[in-house]
Specification:
By secondary structure, the protein is of the alpha/beta class. The protein is built from twelve helices and twelve strands. Helix 3 links the parallel strand 1 and strand 2. Helix 1 crosses helix 8. It is globular and about 55 Å long.
Length: about 325
């Protein structure tokens, strides 16, 4: 179903809500076990001091958010957190670094690759988000053990310059191209609530649904407005807008994991249950997402149990890699 036009996507999105949810549910059940949810842990391995000016981000050096710049975490620090994540039920370990991109051959990039190699021995999927990549850097990350690379589109091509000026939408697409050439899975989604229109959101889905191969996972984030950033006054996303986006994404990308991501801390249990019903089958798990709050692990496990949902197992290739080590 890839490659739908904006008009076709608008027709899907603007259906009566229950009709839309029913269609999304059927698409979901046709391709997934309806009782499984993937648990992902997200760790900031290098926080603050980023040279980019993304208007939503507390880690940008352009804004006074009170966030202190930190150096890259050491291997043992990361491994301890990764082990804890696995013990608590996570099957994907995601690591993010606040910088513009990676440069091959630098000590920091070599240090990150060493961390990736070690984390990959634990049997979890390994996802990283490190900014812009070249083809060579992407290949090196793949060889180090990265299973998925996150590089979000954030919004539509038209609205993107209103959010970021230090790089372009074309830069995003270039990195996505390098990720897909390398054979790593692509994790790519967006952020709702930055002042964009519904059309901007659907334009983003138009771009996403045209990727070949399709993204392995699509995070749907609701803006967590951070004090000191240009978007600090933005109001929370309406739950029905979020629900429509999840359902439309599920219909457009039936075989893709749809991740209920940032902003989940603002959702009631009932709202989260609706999102799972409409096709979300992955969450970020753990009390913190880079610099934003997230529901506590015990709360998530209690909700999943209440809803009769099970934790999705890691991929066999990841388990095999762990056994080799």
């Amino acid at each position: 179903m890839a490659g739908k036009s904006l008009a076709e996507i608008e027709a899907i999105y603007h259906q009566p809500l229950f009709t839309l949810i029913d269609q999304a549910r059927q698409s979901y059940l046709a391709h997934w076990d309806g009782n499984e949810v993937q648990l992902c842990t997200l760790l900031s391995i290098k926080t603050g001091g980023c040279s980019e000016d993304c208007g939503y981000c507390a880690q940008s050096s352009h804004y006074k958010t009170g966030l202190e710049k930190e150096e890259l975490l050491g291997l043992e620090q990361v491994m301890n957190i990764a082990r804890q994540a696995k013990e608590s039920g996570s099957t994907r370990f995601c690591m993010g670094a606040a910088w513009k991109g990676v440069r091959e051959g630098t000590p920091k990039f070599e240090q990150v690759k060493e961390i990736i190699r070690e984390v990959s021995t634990l049997g979890m999927e390994v996802c990283v988000t490190l900014g812009q990549l070249t083809d060579q850097a992407a290949q090196e990350l793949k060889e180090a053990g990265v299973t998925a690379y996150n590089h979000n589109l954030d919004t539509s091509p038209e609205f993107y310059p209103s959010i970021v000026s230090t790089h372009t939408y074309a830069d995003r697409l270039s990195t996505i191209g390098s990720v897909q050439k390398s054979g790593m899975d692509l994790c790519c989604g967006g952020i709702l609530g930055m002042g964009e229109t519904v059309t901007d959101r659907l334009r983003m889905l138009e771009v996403l649904s045209a990727f070949d191969p399709a993204p392995e996972s699509v995070p749907i984030n609701s803006l967590m407005s951070m004090p000191g950033t240009p978007l600090e006054e933005q109001q929370p996303v309406d739950i029905f807008d979020l629900l429509r986006m999840i359902a439309t994404t599920r219909i457009l990308l039936p075989k893709t994991k749809v991740r209920l991501s940032a902003g989940r801390a603002h959702l009631s249990r009932e709202a989260q249950a609706l999102c799972f019903y409409a096709g979300a089958n992955s969450i970020f798990y753990g009390g913190k997402l880079l610099t934003a709050k997230n529901p506590k692990e015990n709360e998530d496990l209690e909700l999943l149990k209440l809803l009769g949902l099970n934790v999705q197992e890691p991929r066999q290739t990841c388990m095999a890699r762990a056994e080799i080590h």
